[in-house]
Write a structure and sequence with these properties.
Elements (H helix, E strand, L loop, with lengths): L1 E5 L3 H13 L3 E6 L2 H11 L3 E5 L9 H12 L4 E6 L4 H8 L6 E5 L6 H12 L3 E3 L1 H11 L3 H4 L3 H12 L3 H8 L3 H14 L7 H19 L1
Parallel strand pairs: 1-2, 1-3, 3-4, 4-5, 5-6
Helix pairs in contact: 2-3, 3-4, 4-11, 6-8, 6-11, 8-10, 8-11, 9-10
Length: 219
């Protein structure tokens, strides 16, 4: 896997690069600005880009805008965005265009190496990885929306874990229930959100997008 890293803090940037190289991953370029990372993506054609949200010159949303631009140029590019704290508007702005191959994690997650690497691999494989704290805050925002009111507390919990990018087995382990129970909850979520598509993968993505869109509307 070929990876480009964009982070204006040189210590964190090099630390992530060292970690990934130790795992046998190919870090083809590192960058300190949004302009540099877009140039690196163009030059090296990586499989994944890891970007900080706030980068020079204004340290506002340069990383998010670079991620959106990179995906518009390379729709197949996996993107993992890192943020120092939950920034709901940025998270939903990035993810509303589609959740496949996208992740949004808090930087503190990098220190939990196994969790970070697991999220990175899910995103690289075309999945989703949204930080649990981001999910929790987005759900807090979305609770008043009528389209989600039909879900039970457990179904909301399952949908939140789906948004984090977890599969049925991982959700069952997290909630200490059986995989069969998780499957029933997901079927109920699809029914209550009026999602009748035959392909379960597509419905999982649609359910997560519904949740994110509702959260974005209330931000």
């Amino acid at each position: 896997m070929r990876i480009v890293i964009a982070e204006d803090d040189p210590l964190l940037r090099e630390g992530i690069a060292l970690l990934l190289r130790a795992e046998g991953l190919d870090v083809v370029a590192t960058a300190g600005t949004a302009e540099e990372v877009l140039a690196a993506v163009e030059e090296h054609q990586p499989d994944m880009a890891i970007l900080d949200v706030r980068m020079p010159p204004t340290h506002s949303d340069e990383g998010i805008r670079a991620a959106v631009e990179a995906r518009s140029r390379r729709p197949d590019l996996a993107v993992l965005v890192l943020s120092a704290y939950v920034e709901q508007t940025f998270a939903t702005e990035l993810l509303t265009g589609g959740v496949e191959g996208l992740g949004y994690l808090l930087k503190e997650r990098v220190g939990r190496v196994e969790e970070f690497l697991d999220a990175l691999r899910r995103v690289a494989d075309g999945g989703t990885a949204i930080d649990p704290e981001v999910v929790a805050q987005l759900f807090t925002r979305s609770r008043q929306d009528s389209r989600l009111e039909r879900l039970s507390p457990r179904e909301r919990e399952v949908l939140g874990l789906m948004a984090e990018g977890l599969g049925n087995a991982a959700i069952a382990e997290r909630l200490t229930v059986t995989a069969g129970a998780v499957h029933k909850h997901i079927r109920s979520i699809f029914a209550k959100l009026n999602m009748s598509a035959a392909d379960e993968v597509d419905r999982r993505v649609a359910a997560v997008l519904r949740y994110l869109e509702d959260a974005r509307r209330l931000v």
